[in-house]
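Annual report, structural modelling task.

Input specification for the zinc ion complex:
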Amino acid sequence: MADPIRRWWLTAALLPVVLLQAACGDSMEPSTDAGKSALIIVDMQYDFSPGGSLPTAGGDEIVPLINSLQDRFDLVVATQDWHPQGHDSFASSHPGRKSGEVIDLDGQQQVLWPDHAVQETHGAELVAELDRQRIVRVFQKGTNPAVDSYSGFYDNGQRGDTGLNDYLRSEGITEVYVVGLALDYCVKYTALDAARVGYSTTVIVDASRAVNLKPKDGDEAVTQLRAAGVRVLRSAQL
Ligand SMILES: [Zn+2]
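The model returned the following structure:
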């Protein structure tokens, strides 16, 4: 084959390959840093549901949505508030004090709560309607009688560690999505800790409900979460 014809032939033969690569861009490359996602279902327990000792309005209504969301994540875990009797976060442990009052507890501002999520009681159980087939681990928190633990990662003094962070890292998780109860306490602090230790963090707000000790607490939680770099989305926006 004469040289000019040979060059034309090579160009004609290779052009579709070059165009195809350009059109597909990076999608032809194997992904090297594909993170995995985890759904953290916070404290879906009877005591935080209507009829419980520390209820959230509508806390039972979010269970079907949480169940339907689970398949969208690589990994699903749950947290469970799990207090010994006489826990220091209970108003009943402080004579003369009432639920909703704030005291100083070992240098921490502590809201006093009605007795709730006491170990081995019905109120501490995860609600039966929650689909547990994909929940690979349940992380218990609040087991230290002297310190409260809103977050599923660390107690309120940032000392006690539930092991959730190490577990998620060991599973290659880089993105977490937080749902459950309650938006203005345990969901908020779980999401804030997740963002602080480096996860891309989203709260799915319609799969959560607030205690609203003060009427705007849920709204203020959303503002604080966004200020800390946490995405707050509705499930339809995922
Ligand atoms: Zn608690």
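DSSP finds five helices and eight strands in the chain.
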